[in-house]
Every structure is written in structure tokens, then in C-alpha cells.
């Protein structure tokens, strides 16, 4: 007999750093998911990724309290900020893009770096080839105020 679906949820968790504290613990606990089991499974699956990289995770949970998770690659903005070498600023100590993209340029990246990001994100993008994936990444860079130089 197939498992009965109870629901789905999405969380963005740093790779290798899932723990029962907020926001992960309460989000899972109120849905009846075993928090420690999830944290151990998530950390094991993300141990080969860069520690602390934000991982969008889709969790499907069932009525028998079991779950499955689909971990995606970090957002394009994370890779672009890293490639551009943007330094952390602000209250949360995170790197930021331009306040007014299109008028302000905060950093530059090369086409080779954009290609590398597109290859890393290829499985999560709705692109058929690397060139189309590069266009998606270029759009993200443009909206962040990051200039791409040939």
C-alpha cells in the first residue's frame, strides 16, 4: 500500500548545518516530522557541499511520520556573490547586490565564471543547454548590479 501524503514544505537550510533550533526545528516539529532524523539525514546528504551554502530543500511528509527530501543547488545569487568577491555587510553580515541595479554596478564577473555557475546550476534550471542556462545566470547578475565582462 502506498504512503498517504500529509503535505509538502520548503526550507532554505545552510549545507551541513541543520540543527533542531529555529527555524528548522519548529517548522518540522509542528508537522510531526522527527527533527533529529531529518537533521542527520540532511547533514549527511550535504556533507560534500560547501559548508554554510544555502540549500533550498523541498520536504514531502507522510501521515506515518516519514519524509523524503529533495535538496537543490544553492541559488544563483549565492554563486554570483561568491564569484564577484562581494564582502559581507549589514546587520546579518551577508554580501549585498546593488541598491539600484542598472544604474549602479557593485562588482564584475567574467563570462567563464558565468559558464561555471551555469554548469553547477544546470540540473535545477529550466534550460536545455549551457548557453540558455548562462542567459538565466546573466539575468540574475544584471538584477543584482553585477557586470559581466567578456
What does this structure look like?
- The chain is α+β, with helices and mostly antiparallel strands and 150 residues long.
- The chain has 2 domains: 5-71, Ribosomal protein L11/L12, N-terminal domain (Ribosomal protein L11, N-terminal domain, 2-Layer Sandwich); 76-149, Arc Repressor Mutant, subunit A, CATH 1.10.10.250.
- It has helices at residues 24-29, 35-45, 76-84, 111-121, 130-144; strands at residues 5-14, 54-62, 67-71, 107-110, 146-149.
- A 3-stranded antiparallel β-sheet has the order 1-2-3, with helices on one face. The chain has a two-stranded parallel sheet with strand order 4-5.
- Strand 2 and strand 3 form a beta hairpin.
- The chain is elongated.
- Keywords: Methylation, Ribonucleoprotein, Ribosomal protein, RNA-binding, rRNA-binding.
- Residues 72-148 form the Large ribosomal subunit protein uL11 C-terminal domain.
- Part of the ribosomal stalk of the 50S ribosomal subunit. Interacts with L10 and the large rRNA to form the base of the stalk. L10 forms an elongated spine to which L12 dimers bind in a sequential fashion forming a multimeric L10(L12)X complex.
- Forms part of the ribosomal stalk which helps the ribosome interact with GTP-bound translation factors.
Structure at a glance:
The chain is of the alpha+beta class and 150 residues long.
Give the topology, please.
Layout: E1 5-14, H1 24-29, H2 35-45, E2 54-62, E3 67-71, H3 76-84, E4 107-110, H4 111-121, H5 130-144, E5 146-149
Domain Large ribosomal subunit protein uL11 C-terminal: 72-148
GO biological process, one term: translation
InterPro entries: Ribosomal_uL11, Ribosomal_uL11_bac-typ, Ribosomal_uL11_C, Ribosomal_uL11_C_sf, Ribosomal_uL11_N, Ribosomal_uL11_N_sf
Amino acid at each position: 500500500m502506498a504512503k498517504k501524503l500529509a503535505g509538502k514544505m520548503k526550507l532554505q537550510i545552510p549545507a551541513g548545518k541543520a540543527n533542531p533550533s529555529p527555524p528548522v526545528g519548529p517548522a518540522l516539529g509542528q508537522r510531526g516530522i522527527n527533527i533529529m532524523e531529518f537533521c542527520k539525514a540532511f547533514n549527511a546528504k550535504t556533507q560534500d557541499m560547501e559548508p554554510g551554502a544555502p540549500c533550498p530543500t523541498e520536504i514531502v511528509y507522510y501521515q506515518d511520520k516519514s519524509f523524503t527530501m529533495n535538496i537543490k543547488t544553492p541559488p544563483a545569487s549565492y554563486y554570483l556573490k561568491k564569484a564577484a568577491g562581494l564582502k559581507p555587510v549589514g546587520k546579518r553580515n551577508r554580501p549585498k547586490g546593488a541598491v539600484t541595479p542598472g544604474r549602479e554596478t557593485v562588482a564584475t564577473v567574467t563570462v567563464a565564471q558565468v559558464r561555471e555557475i551555469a554548469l553547477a546550476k544546470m540540473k535545477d534550471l529550466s534550460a536545455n543547454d549551457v548557453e540558455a542556462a548562462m542567459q538565466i545566470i546573466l539575468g540574475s547578475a544584471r538584477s543584482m548590479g553585477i557586470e559581466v565582462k567578456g
